[in-house]
């Protein structure tokens, strides 16, 4: 089912446990109120056209005390559970401690920068069985980094750095999405966290760090560099331009445009022809290209596995 | 026509507020239906994101500022003088100008649609998205200017209500004897005086940024986006209690009359209302739990947010205790009041979920929030208003509403409302975020959204029946006497509708239920309670 | 009786204004930074003094004696001198490039001063047209905005000196 029912980290497990407690309290309170309402409504309905008024009762101090102190006790218990869970879940916000990952939100994509300079776009790799401290930042407006199975939500506020624990208890692909309204394409600012065993993660990280532009460049690559290179990088080892998402391994991605379309040649061609039709409101200009150039670029991008 | 446009009589002004709210409710409802249709299935493209974003922004802004606040003000302005035995509000011309300021604020806001650029940053317009750099069109300027007018209107009517209750009460009506609706209106009005200026400050700062290139919220220039959030929510949280306390007041009048018992524990209900008012200024950060503000700081607001549930919950128990041992008559007004108890409890409980910070860290900004706000604002405030309309309509119009149509509308509205919004709790828990114009085909998203949309259709039909009831009643309805419900507060001593001068002589007041005392000279309240009411 | 209602209404309105200005002042303090050159410390205190002096003439007018109109005129005069004097100083600054967009100090300070000035202007217009029955109510408004200016000056200038 949903995020609260499939936790895959100590943090989200703690949240799920607290939620279960809240659910129980809510159920008990609701049943009590409903019972009171339904009983009154049945037992004390007006019988026939009686004109005598029932006994006029104005209040009861004892009852008032009971239904003030009772909820107060329940909520105090809930508060204690809340604070303990917060301590467990929350990462230190201290900028001097080690940061394993810097995650930046843009309108409308996510990218993650590793200590060795690798910049991953859309698919964020992490090792399993190790807890990372990730810094959440924004390049423009307020976003929110949310991968419900692994971590709490954290607002990405421009001008501020915020930290979360990011870890997964087993390998897998974990969906994530922006969770603070950030403009016209907030709906399609999705990402994935790919958790893999430590050796696989290290191998991926090294491979990406050593990928060079020459290794992927060729004549169509030069066309790309001229027309698209201002905003888009081709390898994860290149620093992000900040103007557009990196396209390393584009052909291996499941979706385009933060989740708005499946990654098919037809959909990719749409991006080359009319970016506004592909993702209305996004910031990619419609670069003038001939049909021939478009085909060349399409072929080239499809080769970036 | 002229007598309505130039009216300063509080009854006319009250009706004007209600009519204005009705008009904007149709607009806000249409906006809601467009959204629900767009969301009925995954990946629909009936409207694009630019349009959708304008619609959800206008829906929220309309419903809160042009429907809920005005209609509650309308009831307050109409009923307060009657309930306290006065003939007029203290500052009648201020009352008139407040109404028209609100109405023209609404017209200004809706004019933005004509420019093709309605505001599109959400009803609470976070910076820096609301800055010129990210929202270049004039939509937000219209939004801010319109809201400045509406805020001014609200402060004006609040001042009028406070002065009226302070200076115009009938002889014998001490502050401890005012009817619960008047008391709630007073507390709400004081809250407005302290909360709406925070909205005004926020809007002045936003307009400075947008039009004069100031730097209040512009992070790139050293400003602080979070300052907007703090200032807005310092207004925004008390605002939601401003929206619900008058509703509590209505329920506190209706349940006693149809249970044939006085409200249980008047002093506690009154005091807990003041507690809610104070506490409501200390919880605003719970709208910002997903921001890294520091654990201890957040914990304080979590505690306050949980604490405020106590005086709120007390009232639910008081209302049940009022029914207990009574002789309950199931008029349409009472049906809505009873439904209110259950719906508002659901909304309040989901609120407790949000106060639990770690849970908030998963469900904030999802449909779980949308469910919560609609359960408290629709299941709460609107249901109380529906009860209030059915209760006071005979007084306002001199006609009775049809009970059969009332029942039909009641069951349709209850069915429609719960179908629409209960499933949204699940959508939120499954991970559907709010403010998205469409969503991918994730398991259950499509099915639950479709159910929600169907529910919305049923709700609209129920409201349509309700409006038909009103229309037909005004044209053909049975004549209403002064006191069709055998009630106890002073408005039922006036004619239906009241004459221009409400009371020929100031009524005699010795307890909270002056008409009960008149009808039961052998057992008046002031005797039963002794001097200590 | 009307007077009681109107004065209570005005008092409540001024409470709302106080909350509004408090938030602007807090924003100013939050963003505190170096004041620009030439904000005109000494001359500002002169104009502030004139505004405070106008509270005396306002008080005399509110006594509703035979010469109340004269005292109102004096109040308007002092208020106008304040606006023109303080305003011309700012105009000079604007011409020098200091502006609301320039820095955080300017943003918060000029918003504060500007909104206050608008209220003084409205006050002057009101004083020019109200009948004697409203003078006590108007006096409350006037005292409030004079004292508020003192607070703004102290916070703004003290903050930049310290």
How do the SSEs of chain B run, as a string of H and E?
HHHHHHHHHHHHHHHHH
Instruction: State the shape of chain B.
Output: globular
What is the largest interface, and how many residues per chain? Answer: A-B, 85 and 91 residues
Distance between the termini of chain A: 32 Å
Number of helices of chain B: 17
Helix/strand/pairing class of chain A, anyone? alpha+beta
Please state the overall shape of chain A, judged from the principal axes of the Cα atoms.
elongated
Main sheet record of chain A: 5 strands, mixed
The end-to-end span of chain B amounts to 46 Å
Q: Name the poorly predicted regions of chain B.
A: none
Instruction: Assign a percent range to the helix content of chain B.
Output: 55-70%
- Briefly note the structural class of the backbone of chain B: mainly alpha
What this model shows, in words?
The complex is a heterotrimer of chains A (305), B (533) and C (162). With 305 residues, chain A is of the alpha+beta class. Helices cover 38% and strands 18% of the residues of chain A. Chain A has 8 helices and 12 strands. Chain A has a 5-stranded mixed beta sheet with strand order 3-2-1-5-8, with no helix packed on it. In chain A, strand 2 and strand 3 form a beta hairpin. In chain A, helix 1 runs antiparallel to helix 2, helix 5 crosses helix 8 and helix 6 packs across helix 8. The longest helix of chain A has 34 residues. Chain A starts with 9 loop residues before the first helix and ends with a helix. Chain B contains 17 helices and no strands. Chain B has 533 residues and is mainly alpha-helical. In chain B, helix 8 runs antiparallel to helix 10 and helix 13 runs antiparallel to helix 14. Chain C is an all-alpha fold. Chain C is built from 5 helices and no strands. In chain C, helix 1 packs parallel to helix 5 and helix 2 runs antiparallel to helix 3. The mean pLDDT of chain C is 87. Chains in contact: A-B, B-C. The interface between A and B is large, with 85 and 91 residues.
